[in-house]
Amino acid sequence: GSRYLKFDTNETERMRIDSTGRVTKPFQPAFVADYAGTSSVASGNNLVYPNVRLNVGSSYSNSTGKFTAPVAGNYIFYWSAIGGINDDVYRFKLYKNDAEYISSTQLRIDSPASQYGNGTRTDILALAASDTVHIYYASDSGNTSYANENYMTFGGYLLG
User: Fold this and answer.
1) Residue 5: which of 20, 17, 22 has the closest Cα?
2) Which of 33, 34, 72, 116 has the maximum number of C-beta atoms within 10 A of its C-beta?
3) For 66-95, how does the pLDDT look when each residue is reduced to its tens digit (9 = 90+)?
4) CA distance 147 to 14
C-alpha cells in the first residue's frame, strides 16, 4: 500500500505528502472563470467572468468579477483575452484593490482591422488577507472586445 504523511484538522484532511514527496492541498484557494457563449465586452469596464469552472474556497465572485484573498500570501493570476475586428489596441489590466496594479501589468492586444488578436498574461502578486484582484478592460479607441469561453478567462491560486 501507499504510505503517506497526513495532516488533519478536526478530522478533515487538509494536506497530504505521499511517499514520493508529492504534496496535495485540496483546500488551497483557486479559481477559474470564463465567458460562456459568445458576446462582447464594452471598453472602460471591470470584467465579470460569469461562468465559474472552479472556485475552491469561494473567493471569486461571478457577480463582481473580483477575487478576494482569504489569507495573506503570494498568488499567481492569469488572464486571456481576444480583441475585436477594429484597428485598435485592446488593454486588459490587472487591478488590485480597485487600482491599476502596475501600468505594465496588462495584456496588450494590437488587432488590425478585420483580424482578431489574442493572448494570455500571467503575474504573481503578494496579497494581504481581504485584498481584491480583478481585470479591467479598455481599448485605446473605445471599441468593444469579442468575448467567449475559448478566449476570455481569468484564474488564480495561492502559491503560499
Assistant:
1) 17
2) 33
3) 999 999 999 999 999 999 888 999 999 999
4) 37
Q: Dihedrals φ, ψ of 72, to 5°?
A: -70, 145
What's the count of helices (H) and strands (E) in the chain, helices before strands? 0, 16
* Residue type present at position 104: S
Three-state SS at 36: coil
27 secondary structure, DSSP code = T
93 phi, psi to nearest 5 deg: -105, 140
d(CA 17, CA 65) in angstroms, rounded, equals 34
CA distance 15 to 22: 10
Cβ atoms within 10 Å of 95's Cβ, excluding its own: 18
DSSP state, residue 60: B
Residue 107: which of 36, 47, 31, 39 has the closest Cα?
A: 47
pLDDT number for residue 71: 97
- Is 128's pLDDT higher than 60? yes
Task: Return the C-alpha cell found at 82.
Answer: 481576444
Classified as helix, coil or strand, 69 is coil
